[in-house]
């Protein structure tokens, strides 16, 4: 059984969020950018926390932002947002949050199979701090047990990956000279 | 024995806790049925349950119940889930 898609376009590294709403909205934007959801899904993820509280902070430093299936879920998908500065969600034990995983499921009964896979990823205690410290999107995909995405036309928003790409371009042009 | 795991929506979060509760029960060699539910369904689901596992944030939403309510801080920590289940059931 495999996880929902986590393309590079659904990964944002070092996001500056002023609070939990901005952090969840970033996870929603990443889902939308990757084609898993339309814009209203991010608002619905925020509304879940407004209704039920910070229970989505299910482990120290980690929020699993999600909402019910709906017409704004275009396909199953995951997103990962790491925060430049951790933010508080209001959870008594697990604040502050440095990693927000966005989850969109298209049907209430189709996703049970991948939850075990997600649990396997996070049963390793060190994975949350390692995710928080990750500097490139491929590294985050590998922490989820995923291989190279090979989607360079659809890059993640990452200062590190931009720098790496610039460096590669520079060395390439030097070679040409 | 029946154990209910509860989250706000019944999609995603409670299923993660269900998977790890089943792993904890296996480790403790306790046979139990683990059912995932949401705030709206907890009264029905927990009517014949011995234990409810949930987040500290959702305890107040359960209402009156005869089941033992166990708060799990880290849904991914099978050690925590096993220790708290062992205390409640042992």
From TrEMBL, chain A:
- Could you tell me where this protein is found in the cell? Cytoplasm
Q: Can you cite an annotated GO cellular component?
A: cytoplasm
PTS EIIA type-2 domain: which residues? Answer: 4-147
Q: What keywords would UniProt list here? A: Cytoplasm, Kinase, Phosphoprotein, Phosphotransferase system, Sugar transport, Transferase, Transport
Taking the first listed entry, what is the main subcellular location of this protein, grouped into a coarse class?
Answer: cytoplasm
Domain of life the protein comes from: Bacteria
Say what the protein does.
The phosphoenolpyruvate-dependent sugar phosphotransferase system (sugar PTS), a major carbohydrate active transport system, catalyzes the phosphorylation of incoming sugar substrates concomitantly with their translocation across the cell membrane. The enzyme II UlaABC PTS system is involved in ascorbate transport.
Protein name, as recorded: Ascorbate-specific PTS system EIIA component
From TrEMBL, chain B:
Question: Example GO molecular function term?
Answer: protein-N(PI)-phosphohistidine-sugar phosphotransferase activity
Q: Report whether Ubl conjugation shows up as a keyword of the record.
A: no
The alphabetical list of record keywords is: Sugar transport, Transferase, Transport
Please cite one Gene Ontology biological process associated with this protein: phosphoenolpyruvate-dependent sugar phosphotransferase system
Q: Name one Pfam family in it.
A: PTS_IIB
InterPro entries attached to this UniProt entry:
PTS_EIIB-like_sf (IPR036095), PTS_EIIB_2 (IPR013011), PTS_EIIB_2/3 (IPR003501)
Establish whether keyword Protein biosynthesis is in the entry: no
Residues of the PTS EIIB type-2 domain: 1-90
Transmembrane intervals = none
Q: Which SUPFAM superfamilies match?
A: PTS system IIB component-like (SSF52794)
Q: What is this protein called?
A: PTS sugar transporter subunit IIB
């Amino acid at each position: 059984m495999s996880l929902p898609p986590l393309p590079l376009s659904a990964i944002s590294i070092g996001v500056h969020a002023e609070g939990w709403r901005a952090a969840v909205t970033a996870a929603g934007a990443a889902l939308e950018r990757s084609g898993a959801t339309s814009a209203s899904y991010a608002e619905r993820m925020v509304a879940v926390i407004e209704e039920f509280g910070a229970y989505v902070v299910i482990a120290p430093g980690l929020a699993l932002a999600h909402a019910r299936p709906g017409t704004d879920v275009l396909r199953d998908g995951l997103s990962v947002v790491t925060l430049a500065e951790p933010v508080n969600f209001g959870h008594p034990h697990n604040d502050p949050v440095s990693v927000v995983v966005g989850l969109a499921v298209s049907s209430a009964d189709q996703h049970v199979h991948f939850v075990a896979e997600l649990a396997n990823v996070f049963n390793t205690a060190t994975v949350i701090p390692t995710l928080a410290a990750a500097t490139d999107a491929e590294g985050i995909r590998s922490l989820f047990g995923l291989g190279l995405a090979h989607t360079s036309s659809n890059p993640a928003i990452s200062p590190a990956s931009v720098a790496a790409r610039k460096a590669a371009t520079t060395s390439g042009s030097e070679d040409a000279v | 024995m029946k154990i209910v795991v509860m989250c706000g929506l019944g999609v995603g979060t409670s299923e993660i806790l269900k998977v790890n509760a089943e792993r904890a029960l296996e480790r403790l060699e306790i046979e139990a049925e683990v059912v995932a539910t949401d705030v709206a369904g907890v009264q029905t689901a927990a009517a014949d349950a011995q234990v409810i596992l949930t987040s500290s944030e959702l305890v107040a939403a359960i209402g009156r119940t005869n089941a033992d309510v166990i708060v799990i801080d880290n849904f991914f920590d099978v050690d925590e889930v096993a220790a708290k289940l062992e205390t409640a059931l042992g």
